[in-house]
Amino acid sequence: MQIEPCGRGGDPVHRHLLLAQHRNRRAGTIIKPISVASVISSATPVDASLRDGHLMEGCRPCNGQQGQVRMRMHGRRVAITGGSSGIGLETARLFIAEGARVALLDLNGSEAAASALGHGASGILCDVTSEASVQAAVEAAGQALGGLDGLVNSAGVSLWRPLAETSYEDWRRVHAIDLDGPFLVTRAALRLLRAAGGGTIVNLASGAGMRPLPNLGAYCSAKAGLVMLTRALALEFAAENIRVNAVAPGPIHTPMLERTLTRVPDREAKMQEFLARVGMGRLGTAEEVARAVLFLSCAESSFTTGGVIEVDGGRVQI
Ligand SMILES: NC(=O)c1ccc[n+]([C@@H]2O[C@H](COP(=O)([O-])OP(=O)(O)OC[C@H]3O[C@@H](n4cnc5c(N)ncnc54)[C@H](O)[C@@H]3O)[C@@H](O)[C@H]2O)c1
């Protein structure tokens, strides 16, 4: 993918030095100081843009001219797990509106959701707990989109259950979907992100992965693991121009939350329990979370990696 100059951003030459040094390190060569002149002279066609402007990964024109709408995701190709429902679906909708093409990777309803979204969306069956399914789905996403510049790991399940009533199978299932899933999908997507010269990964963590909640132990621990995985991978991939961030939502009105409300004996009491923890006193919407995912997936967050944005209306400590 052609990386284009953008009128904003950090020091392009310094960034290229980092990339060149990183390539040397990966190739196992001795790392020598690299001069700015050699960087400029060895510039590939993609790198040539560095001479004229600032490099922002996957940044297509974001300096909209008068009378033009600025598309923050113009030309970007993004795979979204859990893209058939809730936050993943709303993210897909927003990304398409901002000029992206998306592949929805989901265990349920991915094709129906993609055709409802219309132009710019592909639906691909994927079980994020299966290594083989993930590998095939990510490859299919790369083929459908002609490459990959971004990944959003939104597939997830929650489980409100006291520990004493949590079977080992329950525990494993929550961790398989919420933590192993992002690991498998990220690993499978790396080749494509590297081939694109960099990209973005956004993980849907949770406020429950930042602060504990009772009767939610399996989910809290899986999401806390995802937060730490986000931070570790951000450092691991920093020199490759792959940014890794997380969004940690509070209670958001999606099918997941609805399922929780229908499973408890007293829906109203559970709703009040959710609301009591939110400073703003209401549930969030999937679109409010998708807007944070958008920020972390576009060039507006070009110097943010390893970050966690909490979208929770202000978490009240109780
Ligand atoms: N809704 C909330 O209140 C809330 C709060 C904090 C964090 N989150 C996180 O946000 C993410 C999205 O949640 P949501 O509310 O949109 O949920 P949702 O249930 O609406 O959507 C989740 C999607 O994941 C898919 N999925 C489940 N298991 C899968 C698997 N094995 N392989 C592939 N896809 C699978 C489902 O089919 C579904 O389409 C989740 O990771 C969730 O933990 C949600």
UniProtKB/TrEMBL annotation:
It comes from the Bacteria. Belongs to the short-chain dehydrogenases/reductases (SDR) family. Gene3D superfamilies: NAD(P)-binding Rossmann-like Domain. SUPFAM superfamilies: NAD(P)-binding Rossmann-fold domains. The lineage of its organism: Bacteria, Pseudomonadati, Pseudomonadota, Alphaproteobacteria, Acetobacterales. SMART domains: PKS_KR. Pfam families: adh_short_C2. The keyword Nucleus does not apply. The keyword Transcription regulation does not apply. This is SDR family oxidoreductase. Keywords: NAD, Oxidoreductase. Residues 76-245 form the Ketoreductase domain.
